[in-house]
Amino acid sequence: MTALLQRYNVGPRLAAAFAVLIVLSGMIAFIGYRGLSSARALADNIVHQNMVKIRLANDMMNANFIIGTQLRNLALPYAEERNDEFVGVIKSARADYTKAREALYALPASPQDQAIRAQIDSLRTVAKGLNDQVMQLSIAGKDSDAIPLLFNKASPATQQWQDKIAENIALQDKLAADASAVALKSMDDSRKMLVAGTVLVVLLSSALGLLITRSLTQPLSRATRAAESIAGGKLDNDVDTQASDESGRLLKAMSRMQLQLRNLIAAQTDMAKRHDEGQISFRIDASAFPGDYGRMANETNLLVASHVAVQADLARIMGRYAIGDLSDTMHQLPGEKAVFTDTMAQVKANLGAMNAEIKQLAQAAANGDFSARGDAERFQYDFRVMVESLNNLMSTADGNL
After folding, report:
1. Using one digit for the tens of pLDDT, what is the confidence trace for 41-66?
2. What does the DSSP assignment read for 227-261?
3. How far is it, in rounded angstroms, from Cα 221 to Cα 216?
């Protein structure tokens, strides 16, 4: 996995990791939003539909209860003077029922709701017709006909009507309970998915962080060790890599740097070997090295050329001195190189003085003066021996003469 990550630059790696985390976080947020929205919709349905339907159905049942009570009051012959009051209450209760029914039927209805509403209306039509007959008989004073009709037909029909309304209430209770269970399950599922998603994001972010960190720190650690080794003069560090990211390119650059340094050292070693073998004209090919490496090679060539030039100048002047030409003088060299100039000047001075002594003795012998002697004390070693030998020659010649 680390090798795969190292094929890409750090920027794309981090961007991909953040993109994955953002997508996962967005999915978690969406899951939470969807769960809450679902629970909210179910709660709204419970509050604004099921509970309202139950309330309106209860209002319808209350209205029917009032109607039933007033029908009994109207049918029983105990307070006939209040019949108009009982009829007014019945009409008011019927108006309340109609109002509640219209409000109930204005709400959205499922096929099951529509079916039970049709049954309620059907039972209402039957019960209302019977109740109207009871009212008419009671108002007409026919209590003996009204009471059997009330208890034998009207009341049972009204009870069936009430039972159907109660069935509708039970249905709405069940629907509300089911919706509540679904809402709770949706919230519970959303909670579980949020927890699982959060754990997944934490684990994935930790894994990505670890992998990306390792993909960066491992090659950087190798590069650091290689740089420290190169600084310490060790140029055979293992910096080979197949990575193509920034750290991989750093290792490859360090590998090329090591190679250039080794090549430069090898070129210097080869030049030293060739000079030891006498090929002092050999120079490093500075054009084979880029940038400052080429400048270092060129500076090395200039240094070697400078020393070779001094040696060549020494050989040339010594060659002239060897054939007796003392007219050439070595140019003054700077710094510690001045020892060559001073030495050659001393050689020239000694050879000149030796030449002067020989000329002086030769001229004296030519003039017949064999008493002349050279100043041997001015010279050392073989030069002194040479002057002393000339002096002995002059002395022998003078004695023989």
Report:
1. 666 767 667 788 889 889 999 998 99
2. HHHHHTT-----------SHHHHHHHHHHHHHHHH
3. 9
Residues 347, 316 within the same domain: no
Amino acid at 61: M
313-361 pLDDT, tens digit per residue, is 888 888 888 888 888 888 888 888 889 888 888 888 888 888 888 888 8
Whether 216 maps to a domain, the answer reads yes
The number of domains in the chain is 3
The model carries a pTM of 0.51
- Helices 338-366 & 381-400 angle (0-180, nearest 10): 0
Residues 333 and 320 in one domain: no
Structure tokens given for 350:
């000694």
Q: Are residues 70 and 196 in the same domain?
A: yes
Q: How many CB atoms lie within 10 A of CB 207?
A: 12
Are residue 159 and residue 277 in the same domain, yes or no? no
Which structural domain range is residue 186 located in? 1-223
| Cα–Cα distance measured from residue 27 to residue 382, given in angstroms and rounded to the nearest whole number | 105
- Of 223, 244, 270, which closes a domain? 223
Q: Do residues 158 and 14 both lie within one domain?
A: yes
Calculate the alpha carbon distances from 45 to 37, 103, 172, 178, 262 in Å.
12, 16, 11, 11, 82
Tokens describing residue 188: 């519970």
At residue 163, the pLDDT reads 92
Distances (CA, A) of 181 to 31, 51, 184: 19, 15, 5
Measured CA to CA in angstroms, residue 23 lies from 111, 209, 210, 328 at distances of 41, 16, 19, 90
SS3 label, residue 107: coil
